Amino acid sequence: MLKYTKIYHKQQFLRSLVDSLTSRKEKSKERREILTLLIITENMKMVQLALLPIISLLIACGVSKEPAPGSTTTTSNAPKATTVKAIPNQDRLSTAYFASGCFWCVEAIFESVRGVEEAVSGYAGGPEANPTYEQVGYGATGHTETVQVFYDPEVIDYNTLLKVYYGSHDPTTVNGQHPDFGQQYRSAIFYQTAEEQELAETFKAKVGASGEYNKPIATEIAPLTKFWVGEDYHQDYEKRNPNQSYVKAVSIPRLKRFQAKFPDLLKKAR
């Protein structure tokens, strides 16, 4: 009993340590320190189980997902700071919903495409109502980081959006997209109509039969039940924070790879 009491106190200590680190900017060194602590902690299995959700959140999608200057962050116990964007001529636009890892990356990719008027970061795919970023990041809500794409159907069609989607990530990765892993970063398409479902399933089968990948396509295709808009500070994050560490190391290189692959789909430079 004494042994498990000690383990419990170590777990509490490590939880507090990780929580204190989530507000800091320099994460690489601290992640190594956390892993070192885990290695030297007795009863490794129990501690890993207790800390896995916290560590997943710490190292995921931006490592230090600090908000932009002047923005407001929230905790899972407080209402989210969300504002519905005013989108011009929204009544003539259609919407589509895609998930393929960190929504900072996905949002920036779709907003670079001709015919896409706006992309909004949020959450979908799980039963939790009004989820916060922290809750989704722990991987317990069933939601995945998702982007709502507003597009002009007279300029770009749904099938081309599928081309953008599959051409901008590795759809064979199960529950994640490097360097972010967990079901909250899974590859998923959320359809709204039977036509979208058919197009999505046909395109997935085409990609799987193309020979481009030597592993099965892991993309989930599911009906959209509800899209929850993400916190304000996540919106247009890459555009507003080009010098943020994750953005420089992951988001911008991913965007540039997509742009080099599909130059004919891009908006003209202003």
What's a concise summary of this model?
The protein has 270 residues and is α+β, with helices and mostly antiparallel strands.
Question: Helix and strand layout, with pairings?
Answer:
Layout (H helix, E strand, L loop, with lengths): L1 H20 L6 H13 L3 H16 L34 E7 L2 H9 L4 E9 L8 H5 L6 E8 L6 H9 L9 E2 L2 E2 L5 E5 L2 H16 L10 E4 L4 E2 L7 H4 L4 H17 L9
Parallel strand pairs: 6-7
Antiparallel strand pairs: 1-3, 1-6, 2-3, 2-8, 4-5
Helix pairs in contact: 1-3, 2-3, 4-9, 6-7
Give a verbal description of the structure.
- It is globular and about 40 Å long.
- It contains nine helices and eight strands.
- Mean pLDDT is 79; it is low at 1-29, 34-59 and 62-78.
- The strands form two sheets. Strands 7-6-1-3-2-8 form a six-stranded mixed β-sheet. It has a two-stranded antiparallel sheet with strand order 4-5.
- The protein starts with a helix and ends in a 9-residue tail after the last helix.
- It folds into two domains: 2-59, no CATH class; 90-265, Peptide methionine sulphoxide reductase MsrA (Peptide Methionine Sulfoxide Reductase, Chain A, 2-Layer Sandwich), CATH 3.30.1060.
- Helix 2 (28-40) runs antiparallel to helix 3 and helix 6 (158-166) crosses helix 7.
- With 270 residues, it is an alpha+beta fold.
